[in-house]
Design goal:
about 50% helix, mainly alpha, 3-stranded antiparallel sheet, 2 domains
Length: about 260
């Protein structure tokens, strides 16, 4: 009998934190310079300090669930890149040593609320987006919002891209009939770039799809089969499975360009 692998074994905490720490490097030098000015109370006329950040979400409970998990990991792993702080001080000599230390020690501790389109007009009408059905409203100090906005946007964009194929694959599992050969759809995590593969694996796992052909971590640095649809061509076979396999292959090669 196969041993069931736990969620902690599939998604080891230390590995997940290490992957998500990569998002810190998406903090732009421009935003670090602006954050330093805001800390020292000398903003430029072009600075737009705000204590709120609106994060539009795909209108899906599952997407929102994974987004919460991803933001939890980003909160505990985020650090302002030290090398960019040093470079910011070279570009702006007015930045004090106290500000440098504050940036290096900054930890993201936001308040995050789920808001729907209707309540958003009351909560933050200046941030409302016409076609946004659901979103997260993130509140924090002005310097923290300045620093975190790029990493958060990068994360949500990455999630939106990896999300596209997952519901389609899940629908095949849902409509499979006893007489139709069912596809073995699985995701091999920790490859194709650790962060994006981890995010996609979280979607697969949340949808009830299998993580890894044997549910285990790959021993190789690059596993060409990290995203696979194994269609067993024994009659009767649903031709939609061939179509999904073809689309998955096209998607994989498109991302490799």
């Amino acid at each position: 009998m196969a041993t069931q692998i736990s969620e902690k074994e599939i998604f080891p905490e230390e590995h997940c934190r290490t992957c998500f720490s990569e998002l810190g490097y998406w903090t732009s030098l421009e935003h670090i310079l602006a954050a330093a000015r805001l800390i020292e109370n000398r903003p430029l006329a072009t600075d737009g300090p705000s204590e709120k950040l609106l994060v539009p979400l795909v209108d899906s409970d599952l997407f929102e669930f994974v987004a919460v998990k991803c933001l939890e990991l980003l909160i505990v792993s985020y650090r302002v890149p030290s090398v960019k702080i040093s470079l910011a001080r070279i570009l702006d000599p007015e930045i004090t040593e106290q500000t440098v230390e504050k940036l290096r020690g900054l930890r993201w501790k936001p308040t995050i609320r789920n808001v729907k389109k209707g309540s958003l007009m009351q909560t933050a009408p200046d941030l409302a987006i016409e076609d946004c059905q659901r979103c997260f409203l993130i509140e924090d100090s002005v310097e923290s919002i300045e620093l975190i906005q790029n990493p958060v946007r990068c994360l949500i964009d990455m999630m939106s891209r990896t999300w596209q194929i997952v519901p389609h694959l899940q629908s095949l599992e849902d409509v499979s009939k006893p007489k139709v050969v069912r596809p073995n759809i699985f995701h091999q995590p920790y490859t194709d770039g650790p962060l994006i593969a981890l995010v996609e694996a979280m979607f697969f796992y949340s949808c009830g799809l299998t993580i890894g052909p044997v549910g285990s971590r790959s021993n190789s640095a690059i596993n060409l089969g990290f995203r696979c649809v194994d269609v067993i061509a024994k009659p009767p076979v649903d031709t939609r499975l061939i179509d999904v396999a073809h689309k998955a292959l096209e998607s994989m090669f498109e991302q490799l360009r």
